[in-house]
Amino acid sequence: MDEKELFSLFIKECGFWVKIFNLEDVDIIYLLTDDLDEDEIAATQYRYDSHQAIIMLSSEVDDVDTIERAALHEILELLLMPVKIQAINMGDAYHPYVQHETHAVIYRIEKLFKEKKDE
Question: What does 49-111 look like in DSSP terms, one character per residue?
Fold first, then answer.
């Protein structure tokens, strides 16, 4: 698959998870970028006040499995983002804890769906 096809697959996969988690009220813009950190496959930015999100995929991603995992991960980020934002707004002292615990929940949900998919 070329870059355009992989990006289209990413958008399609994200759309699937958006419906599963009932996030259709969020206005999402998808971007293919080479501006992510070296260790990032994808990233999500969210505006709490306007329910707008930007979901970015690294242009370095070149396989379907990574695309599928990244789509689920970023939609789970989006699902938990309002909680994360509220907790972080409580003060900087909570930020590392919130990041860690948010990802702990995301990894559990990812594992659940992977196991179901593999059955």
Answer: TTTEEEEEEETT---HHHHHHHHHHHHHHHHHHHHHHHHHHT-GGGHHHHHHHHHHHHHHHHH
